Structure formats: C-alpha cells, structure tokens
Description:
The protein has 219 residues and is α/β, with parallel strands linked by helices. It has two domains: 8-19 and 89-217, Rossmann fold; 21-86. It has helices spanning 21-34, 42-45, 53-63, 69-86, 95-105, 117-126, 150-158, 173-181, 197-200, 213-217; strands at 8-11, 108-113, 135-138, 166-170, 185-188, 205-206. Helix 1 crosses helix 4 and helix 3 packs across helix 4 (69-86).
Amino acid sequence: MLINPLKLVIFDKDGLMMDTERPVVTVWNEVFTEWGLEPLSEEAYTKFVGFDRRGNMRQMQAFFPQANAEELCAACGLRTREYFTNNPIDTKPGLFELFDALDELGVKKAVATSSGSRSAHMTLEKCGILPRVDAVISGDMVERNKPAPDIYLLAAKTLGADPSECLVLEDSNAGVTAANAAGMAVIVVPDMIDTPPDILELCLCRCDSLHDVIPILFA
Length: 219
C-alpha cells in the first residue's frame, strides 16, 4: 500500500459514495423554473459540486443576480431533502465491497461531507452506509468548509489518526484541494466532471470506480 500504516480512509459523500448529483440538478432546475429562472446545465451545476450552503449561495448569486440567493438556496435545499426522503438513493458501484476490504484490513472509515448533519445522516442511513462507518463529519461542524482542510483534519482527529495515515477518496476539485491542504493522500474518482490536470497532480491516482480502489489497498 502506498500509505503505511494506513489507519483511516475518509470518504466524500455526494458523487463519491452516492449517485446524488444528477438528481439534484433535476430538483434544483424545478425550483429555478418555478422562480422564473433559467435552468442550469449539468456543466453549470458542476460549479456547485463540493461546496457547502455558503458556497452554493455565492454561486447562486453569481448565476442569478436578480434573485434572493439566500431564499433560493433554502428553497433548493428543502426540495432536495424532500426528494431524497421520498425516493431511493443509489450507491456507487464497489462501495460496499470497498467497505469489506477495509474491514479486512482493520482500517477505520469516516465520511466528510459539505452537507449539513441532518441531511448527511438521513441519506447515509437510508443507503445503509451509516452503520458501516466510524464517524460522520459534516459541513456544519467546521468553520471553514472545502476547499479548506478543516473537515478532513477534524475527521482524522476524531478517530485518532495522523493526516499522514489517512487516505481520502474524492470526486470534486474542492475536495481534492481540501485533502491535499490537510496533508493527506487522495485518490480521485470523478463523477460528473473529469479531473483537470492541476487537480490530478495533487492525487495519488485517478480511479474510474470504487472497485478500482480495492486492489490499491492490497498492493
């Protein structure tokens, strides 16, 4: 393994463990249409990926300067929670097999997500992920969210691991930047957008799926 000893693997949530980003595009565009705003393309939505509510508000203000960004963000958040409460959530291929491999190695698992605690715990429990991880660190537990390193440093501290003993799995540019700033190794598993060269340079490697991470653990 490239990290020795490896004590903790930290997972991003949306787009990495769960196939949630594309449904959110649909849900948000319903809200935008109701507000008389132009829907966003998937490419435009990627500007929001990896950021917390504050970051989303800034992006909404940039895309829709004529709207009240705080109220619009709140409406999108409410509609998103309603959607995931009432609809199934798909997990990414290889997730539970990766959990099994980490259990075999005795490596702890944490989730570090920009989402708030309420939303994070609801979706993680619904997918059967919550019982499989040792800690959940959400965006409302830190002062600075991704791309700042705070959320990853708190995950390591919570589970008694040094940053050098951690591996982060991410799909977003903001998340990779945060993990790198925390002094942690990171593997990127892209979701909606491919990883640009400057972000890829910060990673141990790029994997096409979580299945592809498993052999790296045993290398």
